[in-house]
Amino acid sequence: MTLYKNSVQIFDNFFNNPNSVIELGNSLEFYNNEAWPGKRTNNLLEINNHDCLEFAKFFAKSIADNVFYGLQKFQVDIRFHKNDLYDNYDANFGWIHNDEIDFAGLVYLNKEEPNMQTGTSIFDKITPNDFNVPDYQSRKDLNLHKKVTEQYLQDLKENKNQFTETVNLGNKFNRLVAYDAGQWHRPNNYKVKTLPRYSLLFFIDQAEFKKTETLLSMTSKWRDE
Question: pTM for this one?
Answer without folding.
Answer: 0.91
